[in-house]
Amino acid sequence: MDYIAHLKKDKKMATILTKEPFVLTRKKNIPIRLMASIMSQQLSTKVAAVIYQRFLALYNGKEPKVATVLETPNETLRSIGLSNAKVGYVKNVAQFCMENSITDKKLSSMSNEAIVALLVQIKGVGKWTVEMLLMFSLGREDVFAVDDLGIQQAMCKLYKIDNAHKKTMQHAMLKQAEKWTPYRTYACLHLWNWKDS
Predict the structure, then answer these.
(1) Nearest Cα to 31, choosing from 112, 141, 105?
(2) Alpha-carbon distance 49 to 52, whole Å?
(3) 3-state DSSP call for residue 136?
(4) Where in the chain is the domain with CATH 1.10.1670?
(5) Which CATH number does 3-24+144-196 carry?
(6) Engineering a disulfide at 114: which of 42, 43, 110, 132 sits with its beta carbon 3.0 to 4.6 angstroms away?
């Protein structure tokens, strides 16, 4: 069954579903994707894209190997517009991925929960960052980003959820999202899209 038919069972969700369904894709080189998501934290999409292009330019326009990033001097990484903290976090990702032999193949065989538990051990990587990685790089269909501000705003508006108390709000969001399983990622995509439009 396609996800649209499933999500349409939720009357309120049905009102925001676009005619064109979303398609999730799986990307390669997940450790580099994780570094890219750290680089883009707290930046506009436009600025993040510029910084990532500068990052690739350091390696002749190609995605580097994890070991190569680890060997790159901190000053070089700072020169593309990364803060000291972000340089540290990018290096943390590289170090962790090497020490734990993190590969696309290894991650693709793991559950969402196991990937979150593994990657949040890296200093500078939070649950939200891993959830975005699951959705946009690993193409997982059933991820719900309860901590995402955009999702919170959209759900509070669409489902009239009171946002006065964070815990109560998140509990109500999670309860609502259970209905969308196993397609919660698509529900998030439609919520973001609706909020932005």
Answers:
(1) 105
(2) 5
(3) helix
(4) 3-24+144-196
(5) 1.10.1670
(6) 110
Asked if 124 and 37 count as a contact pair (C-beta separation under 8 A), the reply is no
Q: Whole-prediction pTM value? A: 0.92
Question: Which one is the CATH code of 30-136: 3.30.70.20, 1.10.10.10, 1.10.340.30, 3.50.50.60?
Answer: 1.10.340.30
pLDDT of residue 1: 56
- Asked whether the predicted pLDDT for residue 44 surpasses 90, the reply is no
Sequence ranges of the chain with CATH classification 1.10.340.30: 30-136
| Measured CA distances, 137 to 2, 39, 107 (Å) | 21, 15, 11
10 given a catalytic annotation? no
> Of 10, 104, 142, 148, which residue is the catalytic one?
148
How far is it, in rounded angstroms, from Cα 197 to Cα 193?
A: 6
Residue pLDDT, tens place only, 90-144: 999 999 999 999 999 999 999 999 999 999 999 999 999 999 999 999 999 999 9
Higher-confidence residue of 45 and 181: namely 181
